Amino acid sequence: MVYVDSIAQKELIMYAKLSYRVLLIEDDPSDAHLVSRYLKLSTDVGFELTWVVSLSEGLAQLQKNEHDILLLDLSLPDSKGLETVKAIRSSTHFSLPLIVLTGHDDTGFALDILESGVQDYLIKGRFDGDALIRAIRYALHRSKLEQSLHEAEERWRFALEGAGDGVWDWNLLTNEVFYSPRWKALLGFSEDEIGNNLNEWEKRVYPLDLPIAIANIQAHLDGRVDSYDCEHRLMCKNGQWRWFMDRGVVVSWTDMGLPQRMIGTLSDITNRKNMEQELQQSKQFAVSTIDALSAHICVLDKSGAIVAVNRAWREFYQNNAGASSNCISVIDSNYLAVCDCTTDESSDQAAQMAAGIRSVMKGDKAIFEMEYPCHSEHEVRWFNARVTPFKDSNEYIVVAHEDISERKQAEARDRLLIAALEAVGHGIVITDTNARIEWANPAFGKLTGYTLEEALGKAPKDLVKSGKQDSLFYDDMWQTIRSGKTWCGELINKRKNGDLYDEELTIAPVTDDKGKITHFVGIKQDISERKRLEAELIQLATTDPLTGLPNRRHFMERLGEEINRSERNNSHQVAVLMLDLDNFKKINDRYGHAVGDRVLKHFSAILRKELRKIDTVGRLGGEEFGIFLPETSLSDAGVFAERLRQELAQTPLLADGQAIATTVSIGISELISKDIQADSVLIRADQALYRAKKNGRNRVEFYNGS
What we know:
Elements: E1 2-4, E2 19-25, H1 29-40, E3 46-52, H2 55-64, E4 69-73, E5 75-76, E6 79-80, H3 81-89, E7 98-102, H4 107-115, E8 120-123, H5 129-163, E9 166-171, E10 176-179, H6 181-186, H7 199-202, H8 210-221, E11 228-235, E12 241-253, E13 259-268, H9 270-287, E14 296-301, E15 306-309, H10 311-320, H11 335-341, H12 347-362, E16 368-373, E17 382-389, E18 396-403, H13 405-423, E19 427-432, E20 437-440, H14 442-448, H15 452-455, H16 460-464, H17 471-482, E21 487-494, E22 500-511, E23 517-526, H18 528-542, H19 552-568, E24 574-581, H20 584-591, H21 593-610, E25 616-621, E26 624-630, H22 634-649, E27 653-655, E28 658-660, E29 664-670, H23 678-694, E30 700-702
Parallel strand pairs: 2-3, 2-4, 4-7, 7-8, 29-30
Antiparallel strand pairs: 1-3, 5-6, 9-10, 9-13, 11-12, 12-13, 14-15, 14-18, 16-17, 17-18, 19-20, 19-23, 21-22, 22-23, 24-26, 24-29, 25-26, 27-28
Helix pairs in contact: 1-5, 5-9, 11-12, 20-21, 21-22
Keywords: Phosphoprotein
GO molecular function, one term: catalytic activity
Organism: Methylotuvimicrobium buryatense
């Protein structure tokens, strides 16, 4: 007897989107009525139910080929257990997805049933309407994928019989192989790009697939299998691996009965492989659970009741129950009710969460997301809540809570660090490995004149490079920091307004956990004032304040350096002169010390005018001066000294309308190999000076050893 929804008197369960025809083979009317009622609960898909009570009636219905899915009871008047499934599947008219409905609760029996090709196995009394409809959806989806695979296999079989994609013909005696143009085109090659030998195939087979393919060929050549069939990957011209079905048979043998010729076809099965992978992923998803996720996840129905939670949710509740009023227990609790009843300090967050959930339920929002605290006495915790509708169903929503405490702590540390960096008086700039600025503190802007917006994305050298440092300077800098070391140095940079300033710069590389450099941090300090003070100190320490000439200490240091150079180069001649203004005390006594100072400055100006760049002069004390002339013989030094003496004698100082004549006495010596200290040669020059004074002043004398 056949019933078409016997309870509804042939009323069709029809809805707007889809309608499926269901064949139910069930001898228990109460179970049949329950299935019918469950199917009517579906709101987004319709079902037309045909009910029969025996296997024979079911087989007769299958011959009509009018149904989309079969629901089968295993305890029928004319068949029992696994034999019922076998009888159904052996029917020549059977091609439907099959779901078994049984009261038999045995794991081993269930596995036997599923291995026989059944899509699902539901135990009576343990499933509701939602579970039944989900099982039907899954079975229909899986059947559709399997049908697609079956149709693809039929096309490939047709290709093997003569309408294949690519053809090959192999002479086993010579190893010559003919590859058809289509065979070559499948791999992206033209006719003349592949030769006629077996190696053209072997070298393109994926290395792990090659031994398998060769073994399958050998099995056919040995007569152990009727044909060669192998799925393997081949390298195409574009460098990509694609899957192919390779099939062939021996078509001729030698007089000795050995295989002589083998022909076959090659079909691209990449799409089929992708489909198989999709099917496998679908199976894995069907048997996987959300327990593998670290987020705390629950599923709510439209009333707000929790219908499913994952392991992370359960464990969090078990660990925190009683510690926080925000923690909601497991299945059967009403999430919205807990939110609505919260009255402690977290009530605002609870109300916001409840409003967000309801907005997603109504369809006002596609996604709702918020961050909220869930603190206990012992620790501070933060979570991110995300509410989304259940895929393919408007009956449920998913609420996921992710622990973001570490992120919040990191953000707080970052804010503190940034506040500290922004408060530092030194300019701080962070760049990527290509020296493009990603961040700079306010002190950087104060130092350079550029705002952060102006600096972002630019290299510091494009902003402040003055041109005072050459390329070797920057090459050394980059070589140091790219090797993972810190570079420190001083340079002259240019502000936005064009002003130059002295800068002390430290650049340190920043690495990730693998030691790879990801950024550079530069610390800048304006040292212009310090450099000015240093220059002043050097000037004060090395210069005579009255004449501006090197003082005695600096002169002696320079002369010592010249002695060291002379020791390294024996042919290096250095003449040393001692000079003393004649009758200088009388000038001071007659005209006063102010005029005496002007005489010293006047003489210093003449010295500067007459000296070369390589020469050095110094005021050694009072009216006494010293000069050394590198690369100068005694005779040349005498010429220079005489010219200097005459210049001073012929250029009186005009002071208060009076011409004050001044002369100088000069003693000359030269460096010798025995000179280790500057005093040695100065003593000899001073002795020559003494003789010039003794012989009447205003003259030049050479040291003569006496």
